[in-house]
Amino acid sequence: MNGLTLVGIAIVVLILAYLLYGRWLVKTWGIDPNAKTPAYRFEDGQDYVPASRFTVFSHQFNSITGAGPVTGPIIAAMFGWLPAFLWLLVGGVFFGAVQDFTALYASVKNDGKSMGLIIERYIGKTGRKLFLLFCWLFTLLVIAAFADILAGTFNGFNKDGSQNIPGAAAASISMIYIFAAMVFGIFMRRNKSGEMTKFLIGAIIVALILWTGIQYPLYFDAKTWRYVVFAYCFIASVLPMWLLKQPRDYLSVFLLLGMILGGAIGIIVANPQIQMPAFVGWTAKNQPLFPILFITIACGAVSGFHSLVSSGTSSKSISNEKDMLTVGYGAMLVETLLGVVALVIACSASKDGGLPTGTPFQIFGNAVGGFFTMFGLPEYVSTCIIMMCVSALAMTTIDAVTRIGRMSLQEFFAASEGEENSFAVKLITNNYVATTITLALAYALCLAGYASIWPLFGAANQLLSALVLTALAVFLRVTNRKGFMLYVPMTFMFVVTMSALIISVYNIIMKLTAGNFVFMVDGLQLIIAVALMTLALLVVSHCWKELIHPHTNKKEVMA
């Protein structure tokens, strides 16, 4: 199979999906271009900050993309390229993009409230508490997994003690990015420049950051970078959106879109042949295709985490309801394209029917870096840029998820409307305290390593998607909107992910019986896995009751 053909098919399918299915959803549910969005009605300079369509798209795309679209499809290629390719397209169009857009839509229509508060409004207080606790536990897994990925990527030394120059350069670029983003945020807030001026300034800043970081790499080991990453997460969680998150996401989108474009152009120029078989079998590396394929490829197909971004941060920056389709549905389709590009690149680089040795990041980075050299860039510079792009994927996710984890913990303990918070609740829900608690537990999980956390993270992520789709189906029914398009995705994802979690629990128990059980690693994972399964069953039970027999006092007029 020709790699260019696969990418071409994907582009056509995704464009048609946006123009036809995405617009049909908008028409079916309805939007009001003249409505005053929550970003304006509750503007506070902290979380509710109106922004342009491209700025919110940048934030959404950067936050949801993460390492998943590169990691998942490459790992899933062990079953062959065809199952991964089909799941990316079907999942992206009918599962993931629908979930992301509906979560954003529901939040904007409900004062920018997060999924937990939306569940309280349409399902009840118990459902809200259960869901928020699930979300918070899930964010611990995301922070732990991505922090370990970043620490390994930034590690300035190889196993043999030699200097890892691309990793050190990527680390330097990432650190400069943080400070440059804050300066850019302050400048743009004080100077109301047009979008074109903003775009040009951003492009120049990105070029300068890349040049400086490559010239002055930072050499620290993985342990040191782990501390730095967690410190960055703390800062990103408590600073106003306009000061760090929004400008950083805006600048990062140049890198991420450039990486996708570079990979796509490289495929067009090189016209590589897929060296992997289309289908390996129903089992690969002792892993069954069902349910492993569907939890391995999360980002790019469907990811529950995306809904937390849509309803937790993006909905608070939407300036016009017309922007929701581009931000919610469109950003997910671009991520799907990145997943397809990563799959094609990895399978084109394979030899004798097997993937090259190395992590998915290394496989992807080396291949795309090779494409960039065709345009005259030195191999060293190309590798540094790709390493930075990949680390940017992880950093723009980990800072967003830390903020969402902090908010989930705060909302879990916060009193409902009309109730008074006690002193203890006020203390726990303090931005600094809630962030500290979240990061401390995430750090404990991080010590287990990325490879140990990823299977549990993948299953929990997809289970979150099932819960969100179920809750959104309730929202659509209670507000007299059609929601049948969510029924198949929510049912399928629930069956898939509960099966995967049962397998994870079984494997952990087998380690216990074999005497390889480490409590601070395996024990903590076992506790979280069982808690996630229990919470999921309780949330679905509450949602199902409302879906079948919605309370009449919760009925609303179509917004």
Describe this structure in words.
The structure is a single chain. By secondary structure, this protein is mainly alpha-helical. The chain has one domain. It is built from 21 helices and two strands. A two-stranded antiparallel sheet has the order 1-2. The radius of gyration is 22 Å and the shape is globular. The C terminus is likely disordered.
Protein structure class: mainly alpha
Tell me the count of domains: 1
Categorize the overall geometry.
Answer: globular
SSE sequence, one letter per element: HHHHHHHHHHHEEHHHHHHHHHH
DSSP helix fraction: over 70%
Fraction in beta strands: under 5%
Q: Gap between N and C termini, in Å?
A: 48 Å
Strand order within the widest beta sheet: 1-2
Overall residue-averaged pLDDT value: 85
Count of discrete alpha- or pi-helical segments spanning 4 or more residues? 21
> Stretches where pLDDT falls below 50 for ≥5 residues?
552-558
Rg (CA only): 22 Å
| Strands, count | 2
Q: Biggest sheet, open or closed, and with what strands and sense? A: 2 strands, antiparallel
Write a compact overview of the structure shown.
The protein is mainly α and 559 residues long.
What labels would you give this structure?
single chain, about 550 residues, about 75% helix
